[in-house]
Amino acid sequence: MRNLRRFLTPGWVLGVLAVILFAWACFAILAPWQLGKSGDLDARNARLAESVEAAPAPLAEVVSGPGDYAEREWRLVTVAGRWQPEAEALLRLRSVDGEPVYQVLTAFAADDGREFLVNRGYIPVGENNTVPEYEAAPGGNVEITARLRAAEDGQAEPVTVDGLPAVRIVDPVILGETLGQPVETAGYLQLSGGQPGALNPAPIPSIEAGPYLSYGLQWLAFGILAPAALGYFAWSELKARRRDAEETAVSDVAARDAGDGEPRDDSDDDDTVTGDTPTRAGARSDTPGSGADEAGADPATDAAVARERAMRARYGQRDDSEKRRAHRRADRLRS
Question: What three-state secondary structure class fits 239?
Fold first, then answer.
């Protein structure tokens, strides 16, 4: 209990609270955040690997509900129908190899009656952000091969660029309302190269490991090391205080042994009076034979020597022990 009270100081209390808060943040927020991103990346890599290995399949066999656009994203599908070139929009603020581009989004009416928003590919941005001329979607019934894409989250407020609505993200709900077409709202299609109506095919991400797993493990390690470091410093402090207490006890014993049981003479600390002239013990006397006329005598040095003798006579070895403890404490504070 006594040792516990020694740690109930503002510095130690704030340090303990800071370590507890930091460890909680590591385990409850930071590590799960990075590990969650690592899990999402692994799932995306698995979908990309499946899309590379699997042959294109009819859309009706791959998509049976709205959730399939996200669960089977990047899967190659085939669909037959007709382009709706009058229902077209642009995806802005995108880049390919560091160059700004527009991606062209066109409605496609499938033979089964459903309509889809299709990313036909990209075109370079013209001067002053204008839209250069590009090939229109062909007419007539065609069959296309495209990749499933999930709808993107964010603000998709359209603006007008050269007479076409342009958005920052692909939200089929907003784009369907803007174009006046009842397109599928859970996702859209991204056209592969060499297909009817394809422009420069939009790039797809590569399979990569990413740093998120290592970041998550690092946060877990920090959450473990912080309390361990606090425990180490507390143990060091207790050890130092115990050592000081032991040295104080040894000094007290040594001081009692040096006294040999004789009562302490306080006359060394007080002014002594001889006749009518008071003098300090250890001070120089001006009486004959006192050495006052010796060459090189320094009153300040004589006073310091007198004080040192008085301290040793009064406290014995305890004075030396106190000086050593003071030096050690100063060394710990400097370190």
Answer: helix
Give the whole-angstrom CA distance, residue 91 versus residue 89. Answer: 7
Rg (alpha carbons) of the chain, rounded to whole number: 43
CA distance 250 to 243: 11
Q: Which H or E run includes 2?
A: helix 2-6
pLDDT digits (tens, 9 = 90+) for 16-38: 899 999 999 999 999 899 888 88
List Cα–Cα distances, 232 to 12, 14, 77, 238, in angstroms. Answer: 13, 17, 60, 10
Position 295 confidence tier, pLDDT thresholds 50, 70, 90 = very low
Residue located via tokens 């006579």: 313
Length of the chain, in residues: 335
CB-based contacts of 208, cutoff 8 Å, min separation 6: 41, 45
Predicted confidence (pLDDT) per residue in 95-154, tens digit: 998 999 999 999 999 999 999 999 999 999 998 889 999 999 999 999 999 999 999 988
What pTM does this model have?
0.57
Is the sign of the CA dihedral 236, 239, 244, 247 positive or negative?
negative
Give residue limits of the domains in the chain: 1-56+209-262, 75-191, 264-273+299-335
Measured between alpha carbons, how far is residue 127 from residues 19, 103, 131, 287, 308 in Å? 56, 16, 8, 109, 91
Strands (E), the chain: 57-58, 76-96, 99-110, 115-124, 141-150, 159-161, 164-167, 187-191, 271-274, 277-280
Type of residue numbered 186: A
Q: Using alpha carbons, select from 97, 217, 92 the residue that is nearest to residue 166.
A: 92
- Produce one character per residue of 171-201: b if its CB has 16 or more CB atoms within 10 Å, e if not: bbebbbebbebebbbbbbbbbbeebebbbbb
